[in-house]
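Researcher: Here's a chain I'd like modeled. Treat it as a single chain, no partners, no ligands.
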Amino acid sequence: MSGQIKTNGARATTRRVLTASLAGTTIEFYDFYIYATAASLVFGPLFFPASSPSAQLLSAYASFGLAFVARPMGSVIFGHFGDRIGRKSTLVASLLIMGLSTLAIAFLPTYETVGWLAPLALCLLRIGQGIGLGGEWGGAVLLAVENAPPGYRARFGMTPQFGAPLGFILANGAFLLIGLFLTPEQFLAWGWRLPFLASAALVAVGLWVRLQIHETPDFAAAIAKAPPPRVPLGELFREHAGVTIGGVFTGVISFAIFYIATAFALGYATTTLGIARTPFLTVQLGAILFLAIGIYTSGVLSDRFSAGRVILAGCLGTVAVGFLMGPMMRGDSLFTTWLFLSMALFLMGIVYGPLGALLSDLFPARVRYTGASVAFNTAGILGGAVTPLAAQALAERGGLTDVGLYLSAAALVSFLGLVILRRKSAFNGISTP
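Model: Modeled as a single isolated chain. Structure tokens:
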């Protein structure tokens, strides 16, 4: 009987850990994506004066990219405390910073009201979002991976990755529902603020869940074995620079796929192709389900074959899919557009799902928060910050064929990262600490 009670207790603890890991990333990605959606739909004309809609869209995408520049700052700040004082308290702080920054955007005046102060305030709050998310992802992944039993590190590590599709569904679903009940004039005037206001309730739920969990076994064991590093970032660069670079390159493709298939595709479809916002959001919501399928598939396969090999397969598939973008996203068929987005996002799930386990296993527990976070969020600059801008510029000059080639090139960058990690355990098999 006592053994059954212990088993039930262990299962309850596992559920709490995985729920806390998933809930936090879902909220963080919801906050991040409602900005991406608003940047594609309304931030250009509301916050950035320009001579053309295309220039306004580029300005909005530039503000969107600021968060990716801020994310490595967040990874250093939160990684420092996560490796010194623990994962739990650091995760609570990252969620608060992200949530408060998002909520404040709902109350911003527009350029017409306060002039240049409006885009300045928007960009500062976007940086706040980036700092919060920079500390969030690494901690959420470690919360799952460092509580995983042997042979389940990739499957536990994929749990917070589901926050990406769930957050996207909540974000785009919110804009879709608002679009159904409000006129375009109402949406532009005040309706776009509602998803930012709703984030407050989600953050409250996330904080409650995270306050119920305990510190991870790996961190407790590392602290018991030796004092934490005084400056985790310094130790990371001294002893683990090579694998950090490899991890950065490996993560590039997951960002590139996602922001081409979401932020860029939405902006391009509703402006250049002339597709209405509501049907295209519906198409994206249908396609995002394949991201979740890809994440689940990759997690199971990674525990069997290794995270590196699964990501390698995803990179090779993305090279091929990049050549299909021009022919399939013509604008005259929503079905072929949905099919392309579904294939791209499925492959994004394949390369993204195992990334948490792979990056975690590159580093010892004493600098793991800093190492995994820095690698992931620096990859975000290379693969995410410049992607909507580059894709928009390429589309204007050479059409979607050039954007597809950009996607294929990003896959080759991640392939290079895997080559750098070729001799590491994270490629040949998921290791245990």
